[in-house]
Structure formats: structure tokens, C-alpha cells
Design goal:
12 helices, alpha/beta, single chain
């Protein structure tokens, strides 16, 4: 096992990279092209990476200004396998020369260059906030965190994520890749009142729900210093569901970015898109 000190070596790190999870495609959809245009308009000066399966020829992908990092193709089979990748040390080690990564799925938009400002905040994880997370309530009982958010547009402090994964490794007592068993463990933890403790003495990638649930709700249980942006701050960072409501709650100001803009009230976002 690679030592944590070796991974977190004190060489001068670059500030941030933009990471775009994408399946290999010969062409992007109309909405994905809009997403890329917004990214190029506002964040083009930052290093930008597509993450792609290792069985493709990246020379055939024609997208100037982007680099490519390959991961095993098994992580690109479906949403579930993609979620496993973002719970892996393997993923964050690839970006260990950066302090932060901005995950920018191709259903996200960005509206300004506030990335440096958010990197200078004190948060380890910032994302478009959820409203009334049921998993959050079950995971924290009366101490349900004030926020948490969707990983599709999220800023992550790389060293903090690696620390959580290493702490979890030291406490492993059981492990399974069977999703039914994983959910059964969670159900039993809820019924016995243990769901508010660390993730059941299992590896991080045994978490049975979407990966952003782990980083929003579970990571702070392992590392006391791990800070998830509270609701009001997260609203300034991004909107997802109920964008009109979010706009009002954010003092009628637009957020830095958004996630799932087509899925949640597309008409709200149309005036903020780059023309043509």
C-alpha cells in the first residue's frame, strides 16, 4: 500500500484542474456542446481533463485545449461504476499535483470565473446543495448536516479526499462489492441506531449510494477537519433542483455554476446561456 505521506508529498502543488467525466463519444449532444461552450468561455485558462476509458484512442477525439487521463474501462460501464471510480484512491492520486479538482459533468454550466475564489475558501467539498436529503437524515439522525450536494458540479480538495480514504482503509473489518449486501448493512445500521457512525468499518467504495453521498455525509465522520460547505454558501456555488427557488434564496443572484440544467427547469437557464 502506498504510504499517505508519499502521496501527499510537500512539493508545490498547482491550484486546480477542471475534470470532465465523459464516455467516449464520436459527437456530443446539443446540450453537452452548450455545457462545453460555457466552460471554454469562463474557465478556459485552467487545465482541463477528460477522463476516459483506457481502451480508446484519444487521438480520435477532436477537442482542442483538453488533456486526457485514462482509467480502467470497467468504470465507464454505467453510472454505478462511475460512482465507484470517484470513491477510489486511484482517481484522486491522478490529480495529486493539484490542490483541487472541479468536477464538471456535461450536464453542468458555469457563468463566471469564480473558481480561484472558491479554491481559497476553507471547504473540502462544495457542491450544488440538496433539499431534504433522506439519506442525510438516516445517516446523521438529529445531527443531520445543514448541506451536502450533487457531485456533478463540485469542488474537491484532493489531499483531504485521500486522507479520508486512507483513514477508512485502516478501519476495514468487512468488505463486499455486492450492492444488495451493502444496502442491507446500511439498513441494519439504521435499525440499530449505528448509521451515524463511520461507514460500517468498510472500504469507502462499499458505500451503496451515489459517491457524493459519501463525501457529503460520511467523510466528516472520518476526518474532523473535513468541511462541507453549508447550505447558504453552497447556494452561491451552484444550483441544481428548484433553480427559481435557489435564485430567491440566494438574494436573486446567480450562482457560480449549476448542475442538471436541462433536467431541472431548463427555461430558467436559457437567458444565461452564451448566444449562438
Amino acid at each position: 500500500m502506498t504510504s499517505l505521506k508519499k502521496i501527499l508529498k510537500k512539493t508545490k502543488k498547482k491550484k486546480v484542474a477542471v475534470v470532465i467525466p465523459a464516455y467516449y463519444k464520436k459527437s456530443f449532444s446539443r446540450e453537452e456542446i452548450v455545457s462545453l461552450k460555457q466552460l471554454k468561455k469562463y474557465l478556459n485558462s485552467y487545465p482541463k481533463y477528460f477522463i476516459v476509458p483506457d481502451n480508446i484512442n484519444v487521438k480520435k477525439i477532436k477537442e482542442k485545449g483538453f488533456k486526457y487521463i485514462k482509467f480502467p474501462k470497467k468504470y465507464f460501464s454505467n453510472v454505478k461504476t462511475y460512482n465507484k471510480l470517484l470513491l477510489k484512491e486511484l482517481f484522486y492520486k491522478k490529480f495529486s499535483k493539484y490542490e483541487y479538482v472541479l468536477i464538471y459533468q456535461l450536464d453542468a454550466l458555469v457563468f463566471s470565473d469564480e473558481l480561484q475564489k472558491w479554491c481559497n475558501s476553507t471547504y473540502d467539498y462544495i457542491a450544488a446543495p440538496w433539499f431534504g436529503s433522506k439519506i442525510g437524515w438516516l445517516s446523521h439522525k438529529k445531527n443531520c448536516p445543514p448541506s451536502g450536494g450533487n457531485g456533478g458540479f463540485s469542488l474537491r480538495k484532493v489531499d483531504s479526499f485521500l486522507k479520508v480514504i486512507h483513514i477508512a482503509k485502516k478501519q476495514i473489518k468487512r468488505s463486499t462489492q455486492n450492492s444488495v449486501v451493502q444496502k442491507f448493512w446500511f439498513l441494519m445500521a439504521v435499525l440499530t441506531g449505528k448509521s451515524h457512525t463511520i461507514w460500517l468499518n468498510s472500504p469507502v467504495d462499499n458505500y451503496p449510494f451515489n459517491e457524493d453521498g459519501f463525501w457529503s455525509l460520511e467523510a466528516p465522520k472520518y476526518l474532523n477537519s473535513f468541511k462541507v460547505a453549508p447550505f447558504k454558501e453552497a447556494l452561491k456555488f451552484a444550483f441544481e433542483r428548484f433553480p427559481r427557488k435557489c435564485f430567491k434564496l440566494n438574494n436573486k443572484k446567480l450562482s457560480f455554476g449549476c448542475h442538471a440544467w436541462v433536467k431541472y427547469d431548463k427555461d430558467f437557464w436559457l437567458p444565461y446561456l452564451i448566444k449562438n
